[in-house]
Amino acid sequence: MGLLDDSQKEGFGSSWGGLKSLVRRKQVDSAHSKRLGHHQLAKELTVPHLIAIGVGSTIGAGVYILVGTVAREHSGPALTICFLIAGIAAALSAFCYAELASRCPSAGSAYHYSYICVGEGVAWLIGWALILEYTIGGAAVARGISPNLALLFGGENGLPIFLARQHIPWLDVLVDPCASILVFIVTGLLCVGIKESTLAQGIVTTANVCAMIFVILAGGYLGFKTGWTGYELPTGYFPFGVDGMLAGSATVFFSYIGFDSVASTAEEVRNPQRDLPLGIASALSICCGLYMLVSVVIVGLVPYYAMDPDTPISSAFASNGMQWAAYIITIGAVTALCSTLMGSILPQPRILMAMARDGLLPSFFSDVNKRTQVPVKSTLATGIVAATLSFFMDVSQLAGMVSVGTLLAFTMVAISVLILRYVPPDEVPLPSSLQESIDSVILRYSKDARAFRGKNPEINASGDSSQPFLGNKNVSVGCPIVGKLEALASCALNEESRRKIAGWTIMLTCIGAFTLAYAASNLWLPSLLRFTLCGAGGVLLLSGLVVLTCIDQDDARHNFGHTGGMLSALYILICGRLPSHILCLHDFIMHGSFMRQY
Q1: CA dihedral 99, 104, 107, 109 (to 10 degrees)
Q2: Cβ contact 385:349 at 8 Å
Q3: Dihedral pair phi/psi, residue 373, rounded to 5°
C-alpha cells in the first residue's frame, strides 16, 4: 500500500509511532493492489447502470409511508417544498461524492476518501460505521418485505407456511424465513457478476418507477376531477409554519440516501471521470423529481390531517373510489424494497475488500474471483450476516443507528473536499535528513558566490556588497542555481504558510458547523446555553467561510488524483467556492434528521 508519511526519527517511542500510524494517508491510485497480485474488479458499468444503482438504492418503500407522516405532523401541504429543500442538501453532498469519486475511482467510497484526505484512524472508523449502516439497513429492509408481500397474497397470513413469519415460544423470537431467503437470493445475484446484478436491479427499479408514475398520472387525473381539495384549506399552505417545514425537510432527507452506493462501484466503471458524476447527478435528479411529483399529487387529493399515516397513498386513492390501485402501490412498495435491499448489500463487500487491501482486515476479504471478477468471499460473508440478522432479530430498534453511519460518512466526505481544495494531500513530505542535505548545499553555494563576487565586484556593481547574498535580487546573474533555489525556498515558505492557515481554518469551520447544528437541533438545551452555542458556532462558521473565500485554493488540486470528469464551466461555477456551504447546510439537515430519530 502506498502511504504518505513523514519518516520517523530514531529515538522516538513506539507510542509516538503508533499515534503517527493513525494519521498516515495512502496515495490516490489503487494500482498497488495489482502489483500485490490482487485481481481487479470487472470494468463493466456505464451511465445507465449507475443510474439504475442510484435510483434503485435511493427510492425505497419509505416514500409510500413517509408522505403521510411528514404531512400530518410537520409540513401540511408544503410537503413538496420539504422534498425540494432536502433534495438540495442531498445534491450538495452528491457534488462532493461526484468530485471525489471521479478523482479517486477506487472501491471503498467514503472510507477510501477519508484514508486519502484525513488518515488511517478516521478511515477505520468510517469503514466500520459504513459496515454497520449497510448490515443493519439491509436486514431491516429485508424484514420489511414480507408484510408487504403478504398483502399481495390476500392479507397478513397469506404467505405460504414456509415463508410466513413464525414465533418460536422457547426462544421468544419472531423468525422471518422470507427475509433471509431474499437476502440469499440477492447475495447470489451479486456473486454472479456486477453487470448481471445491475441488470436485475434495473428491472426491479423500472417496475418501482412505473408504479410511482402511475400514482402521479392517476392521482393527477383525480386531482383535476375533484378540484384538489387538499390545497383548499383555511390553515393555508404552511399550517405548521416555516419551522415545521424545515423539520419535515430534516425528516425526508433520509429518503435521498442511496446515491453513495454509486460511489462504491467506482472501480468497476469503464470511464469513471465522466460516468460517475453523470450517474450520481442523474439518479438524484430522477429521485427528487419523482418525490416532488408524488407529494404534489397526494397532499392535493386528501387534506393533510385526514391522511392515513401507515398507508397514505393507498388510502388517498381509496377515498376517491380507486380501491384497486392499492395492488399497484403494493407492487411498487415490494419492488422498491427489493431494489433497496440490493443497494444495501452491494457496497459492503467492496468496503470490506478495500479495508483488506489496506491491511485493516484479513486478506481473505480482498480476494476477487477470477471468473466473475467480484469479491465473492466478501459478498458471501455479507449475505450470511445480513440473512442471519433478518431471520432471527427484529432490527427495527437498531435501524435508527443507520443514521450514525450516514452522518459520519457524509460529513467526512464534505471535509475531504475542503482538504482536497485547500491542502491536497498528494505530496510526500521530505525526510529531515534530505531537508538537511538541501540546506547544506544552499549554504555552500551561498559562500562560494560571496567569494566569487569579492573577486569580481563588477558583476554586481549596483548592489551593496554588505547585503546578504540571498537577499540580492540579481543573484541569478552571478549564480543561477542559487537564484532558483532562493525563489523555490520563498515560494515554499509562502505555500507552507497558506496551507497552515487553510488547515486551521478548515478545522474551525468544521467545529463551528458542528456546534451550530448541534445547538440548533437540541431543543431540550437551556435557552441561554443553546443561544450561546449557536452564536459561537455561527461566528466560527462565518469567519471560516470568509477566510476560505479570501485565501487561494491550492493549485495542486488540479493534478490531484485522476483529472477530468466534472470540469465543466457549470460545475466550476457551482462548486468553486461551495464546500464550506455544503458542510453548513448538510450538517444542519443531517443533525436535525439524526435527532428526530430518537
Answers
A1: -40
A2: no
A3: 55, 40
By 3-state DSSP, what share of the chain in percent is helix, strand and coil, each rounded to 5?
70, 0, 25
How deeply is 48 buried, as exposed, middle or buried, from its count of CB atoms within 10 A (0-12, 13-18, 19+)?
middle
Q: Which cell goes with 69?
A: 407522516
Q: What is the CA radius of gyration of the chain?
A: 28
- Closest listed residue to residue 58, CA positions, set 329, 265, 287, 289: 287
Q: Is 339 buried (19+), middle (13-18) or exposed (0-12) by CB count in 10 A? A: buried
Q: In sequence order, which residues have a C-beta less than 8 Å from that of residue 484 and are 6 or more positions away?
A: 476
Q: Phi, psi at residue 176, to the nearest 5°?
A: -130, 90
Q: Can you tell me which residue has the cell 431491516?
A: 140
398: helix, coil or strand? Answer: coil
SS3 598: coil
SS3 596: coil
Handedness of CA 139, 278, 102, 514 (dihedral sign): negative
N-term to C-term CA, the chain: 41
The per-residue pLDDT string of the chain (598 residues; one tens digit each, 9 = 90 and over) reads 455 544 444 444 444 555 666 677 776 654 444 444 456 788 889 999 999 999 999 988 778 888 888 888 888 899 999 999 999 988 888 888 988 888 888 888 899 898 988 888 889 999 998 988 888 888 888 888 888 888 777 766 777 888 888 888 887 788 889 889 999 999 999 999 998 999 999 999 999 999 999 999 999 999 898 888 888 888 888 888 888 888 888 888 888 888 888 988 988 998 888 899 999 999 999 999 999 999 999 998 988 888 887 788 888 888 888 888 888 888 888 999 899 999 999 999 999 999 998 888 998 898 898 888 899 999 999 999 999 988 887 765 666 666 777 788 888 888 888 888 888 775 434 344 444 554 555 555 555 555 555 555 554 444 444 444 344 444 444 455 555 555 555 565 577 788 888 888 888 888 888 888 788 777 778 888 888 998 998 898 888 888 888 887 766 555 555 554 444 333 333 444 444 444 444 444 444 444 444 4
Between helix 376-392 and helix 347-357 the angle, nearest 10°, is 130
Compute CA 446 distance to the chain's CA centroid, rounded to the nearest angstrom.
52
Q: How far apart are CA 260 and CA 93, in angstroms?
A: 9
Distances (CA, A) of 419 to 117, 174, 557: 6, 48, 10
> Residue 320 and residue 306: Cα distance in Å, rounded?
13
Mean pLDDT for the chain? 77
What residues have CB less than 8 Å from 278, skipping those under 6 apart? 47, 50
Q: Is 338 helix (H, G, I), strand (E, B) or coil?
A: helix
Dihedral angle at the C-alpha atoms of 333, 337, 340, 345, nearest 10 degrees? -170
Rounded-to-integer distance, Cα 99 and Cα 521, Å: 29
Euclidean distance between CA atoms 22 and 69, whole angstroms: 43
Chain Cα centroid distance, residue 221: 38
What's the rounded Cα separation, in Å, for the pair 148 and 308? 16
Contact criterion met (CB below 8 Å) for 33 and 357: yes
Residue 266 φ then ψ, to 5° = -60, -35
Q: Which three cell numbers stand for residue 563?
A: 483529472
